[in-house]
Amino acid sequence: MIGSVLFPTPVQICLDDVAWHNGADLRCIGQPSRSGIPRKHAPEDYEILNEIGKAIDMKILCPLVIGEWDKDNYLKNKPGYTYDPKGWDRKNEIDYKTAEECLEMAESGEYIEYALHGVLHGRYDENGKQLTEREYFDVKKNEDGTLSFFCLSEDEVNERIDTFYHIYNSWGFKKKIRSFVAPCGVPNDMPFENLKGYADVFRKRGFLYWPHAAMGMDRAAYLLGDVLLLRKNGCSDDYAPWNVYDIDPMMLYDYSSHLFHQKKSIYGLHMTNFIRYNPKNNMENLDAWVKYFRRQSEIFGLMISKDIAFCANQTLYANHSSISLERDRCIIDTSETDSLIYSGKRDEFYVSFKNHLLPKECIGADMTQYECKRNFRTYKFTNHQSTVQVLF
Amino acid sequence: MDNLIRIPTAMQLCLDDVAWHNGADLRAIGQPSRSGIPRMHAPEDYKILNEIGKAMDMKIVCPLVIGEWDKENVLRGKVGYTYNPHGWDRKNEIDYKTAQKCFEEAENSEYIEYALHGVLHGRYDENGKQLSEREFFDFERLENGSVRPFCFPLEKLREKLDIFFEIYHNFGFTKKIRTFVSPCGVPTLPMEDFGEYAKEFVSRGIHYWTNGWMQLEEPDYLLNGMLILKENGGSSDYAEWDAYDYDPAELFDYSSNFAQQKRSVYGMHWTNFLRYNPENNMDYFKDWVKYFKRQSEIFGLMISRDIGFSANQLMYVSHAKLSFEEGKCIVDVSKVSKTDYPEKKNEFYISFKNGFLPLKCEGAKMEQYECKKNFRTYKFTHSDDIIKIEF
Question: Hey, which of A354, B49, B308, B371 has its CA 20 to 30 A from B26?
Fold first, then answer.
């Protein structure tokens, strides 16, 4: 029976680098890598995200880089934020008609959930020279040429978030943001304890989720105060390079075929991966994408997340609870999860059972069938006690 | 008269940055911009060029960057050519199976004509730091911060060309190269400064040099036996150099940019014709053919057959004179005839709007070449410098 019952990993799509106006990677002239597509972004780029989300019933997490929306030139003469602090003039550069259409598409997209990514995805000196693409970590060059990264002070984190929201609010973005995704991730050698200051700030700002790709994280979820670090798949390049558009989903391998990734719930890709060079062609790939994600949902051990909160909660149970099997029943022990203090935790979790081992009765929770796949079924458990028995 | 009779520009497609193995633009880490598509190149990337060329009956000019084919590690330890002079080891990095398939697709193609672009599209210092993406020109930084570009001494140019051809021949490439396209264009130096380059190229059988040539007013210029051809102003007027998945429906007509109408070389990039999944390359094939056929319906344009065809026709576009006398069209090609250009032919093409078609001709043999919706194009093989056409 081992391998026939498990907590499925809720696959949650997280698409970095949403909201750039210009997509071109201009690192070669000291500007940000942006979204990587060498054209301007269009309303259709938001539309395709919403349509994919709708088709798979998932609010797609979209970490925003907000700087190019700066219609009040708030970043002008603000050292540290931009490659052009003195000449910054988005007020006169923005294509307001397109921006307005993008805003409407994003705001009205029920399946687009914003996250905070950054202002311009980097840190710059007073002359606009880029110091690092890691906007939320300071950097120092060592004598041997290597780089060391340091956490920002709480004041600076707060200032950066204030700046983000100043621009965000100036345009009338309204959706509540509850996730933070650090541009270029957290430095690999950064101990999690060092991130405590960020967690304190984030909690006060209402951020409960921090999808995160650091290699040093050996668990799929790590509770940092009241913020849950959720492990992204190691590197999106395993799936699709960050700057690739026109991806044919047929080229992608299954999320879980990489065993190493199977327990990581955040499927980190990039906005660009879902779009086409001609935005009018974006929708041509919709069916293929939907087919790809539906195929993932047929893999025993995976399920499609509904949103970041759903994902975080199920990931918490999957990582802090256990299932043991006896001859006619399985015992689900959630005591460790129950002992965790976290605002994002709910009294519900999901367990998948292979078809030859379907549950008949449940003791210690309310059990309902959630979804039925070709080779297995997934049940939702609510009102649970710390020990739940499922009889076959 | 210009509205009824025109010597059409023979539009010749030229696609920079062909032959990279890895397409990824890695300038952010000091490597070349390459072809700009973030994947490895595949045989299908050559196949689509051949198919488009075949459909238009044009040999597409493909300026090659040859460095990644260096299976003998010719560039190892060679300062100036690569971002990694000491660790260079293409011998062990090449995916030989794919490379061989790409090679065969390119070599067997009747519609892919190679041109010389460069070894690795840049110049590097002894530690591999990139100095410039302009492989064929040096520059000096002046005290005021500006840069003064200049041409290499001849020995240096010869060395570069020798290295290009050494790698080219090592892999077994055999096609004759007759065109040079300088990576990232040419600096705006006086034309005489390029004279020694031209002589050296001609001595190696390279007779055409196409780039943006901002310093030139005219679309062509003859320099020591080499014909300089001015490309359309900047390929990004048409498509960003690194844009793949390019939908030709987004492209405006070649001649709608009037200033460019007389420039015969349509400079784009290989990547513009590719898809991220090479198996999908052919998906836009029909659209590309449709786009180019639409261009051929524009009065004043025609589709070139190859760079020689395009260059020859351009000589007539630039230097022949059309006038009307007593109801006859007089074409004076004497200036072309006097031109000291060895590749020149005594044939050229004229387009006539329907309703104004030629009946007879003196001084040349006239034959209908192609028939379009609003005009017809005739081929003239002239025996005299003055051609008289009757209607």
Answer: B49
Distance CA B229, CA B210 (A): 5
Decide: B46 and B106 in contact? Cβ < 8 Å.
Answer: yes
Number of residues that make up chain A: 392
Compute the distance between CA of residue A9 and CA of residue A313 in angstroms, rounded to an integer. 11
Chain A positions in Cβ-Cβ contact with residue B249 (cut-off 8 Å): 278
Structure-block tokens of residue B94: 């090449």
pLDDT band at A369 (very low <50, low <70, confident <90, very high): very high
Q: Are strands A376-382 and A366-372 parallel, antiparallel or unpaired?
A: antiparallel
Interface test with A, best of B31, B245, B272 (most A CBs within 10 A): B245
Report the chain A residue with the minimal C-alpha distance to residue B274: A246
Whether residue A128 contacts residue A77, with contact meaning beta carbons closer than 8 Å, is answered with: no
Q: Is there a contact between A241 and B38 if contact means CB atoms under 8 Å apart?
A: yes
Distance from chain centroid for Cα B40: 23
CB-CB neighbours of B62 under 10 Å: 27
CA of A263 to nearest chain B CA: how many angstroms apart? Answer: 28
- H-type helices in A8-95, by residue range? 43-56, 90-93
CB A33, CB A134: distance < 8 Å:
no
When CB atoms are compared, the residue of B24, B36, B276 closest to A245 is B276
**A279: nearest CA in chain B?**
B247
pLDDT at A238: 59
Bridge partners of A367, per DSSP, are: A381
A247 touches chain B (CB under 8 A): yes
Q: Which residue among A24, A251, A278 sits closest to B250, beta carbon to beta carbon?
A: A278
Mean pLDDT of A230-258: 77
Query: Do residue B240 and residue A38 have CB atoms under 8 angstroms apart?
Result: yes
d(CA A212, CA B249): 40
Preferred mutation among B44, B251, B276 to probe A, highest tally of A CBs within 10 A: B276
Please state, in angstroms and rounded to a whole number, the distance separating the CA atoms of residues B369 and B350. Answer: 9
Is the separation of the CB atoms in B26 and A27 below 8 Å?
A: no
Task: List all residues of chain B from 223 to 262 with a beta carbon under 8 Å from chain A.
Answer: 240, 242-247, 249-250
Between the alpha carbon of residue A79 and those of residues A82, A127, A182, the distances in Å are 7, 8, 20
- CA A64, CA A80: separation in Å to the nearest integer? 18
**A147 CB near a chain B CB, below 8 Å?**
no
Q: Which amino acid is at B159?
A: E
> What percentage of residues in chain B have a pLDDT greater than 90?
85
Closest Cα in chain A to B246: A277
Q: What is the pLDDT of residues B309-362, one digit of tens each?
A: 999 999 999 999 999 998 899 999 999 999 888 788 999 999 999 999 999 999
Q: Cα–Cα distance between B391 and B73 in angstroms, integer?
A: 64
Flag whether residue A284 sits within 8 Å of chain B, measured between CB atoms.
no
